[in-house]
Inner membrane-spanning protein YciB
Amino acid sequence: MAEKKISPWVKAALDWGPLIVFFIAFNRLKDGTYTILGTDYSGFVVATALFIPLIAATTLILWLLTGKLSAMQIATLVLVAIFGGLSVWLNDPTFFKMKPTIIYLLFAGILGAGLLRGKAWLQLVMNEAMPMAHEGWMILTKRFVWLFLGLAVANEVVWRTMSDAHWVDFKTFGLPIIMIAFIMSQAKLFERHGIDTEESEEG
C-alpha cells in the first residue's frame, strides 16, 4: 500500500489522542477502586486497560489512512500491549510505568548500533521532514541517543520516587515538552547541515 498524505491535525489527533484520553481517565478514576469480574482494580489499572485498545485502534486507523507505520510507532504499540497488558493482567501498574524506560532504551540501543556501523538510522525516520547532510544526521543521532538514555533514567526516577499522579503528569506533558524543546534546540545543526531540496532538484 503506497503512503498517502493526511491532514497534520488528523495525524496529531491519532498520535496524541490515546495519551490525552489516558490522562483524563486516570484523573477521573484515580481515587476509586473498581470491581470487575470479582477483582478490585485501581483507577490507574482501569485507565491503562482503556489505553491499550485505544492506541491499537488509532494506530490501525493511521495505517489505513497513510498506508505506512514507522518502526517507532510499531515498537510503541507492541510495548504498550505487552507492558500495559501485564499491568492489567497482574493488576500491577508497575509494568506500564516501566514501558517508557524500555522504549527509550530500545531506541537508544537501535540508534547506537547504527552509529557503530557508521549509519544514522534516524535519517530513515526524519529525513523527509528535515533533509540534512550525512554528517548532520550522525551528529543528531548521537545527541538523540543521549537524549533517550536521559529520558529512560528520568522516567525511572519519577515513577520510583513520586506518586502515580506525578508520573502521569510527567508522561503526558513532561516527556513531550522535553522532546519538543530538544528538537528546537537543534536549530543551528539543521541550519548548518540542512539541504535545500528544491535547489538540489533544480541542480
The two ends are 31 Å apart (CA to CA).
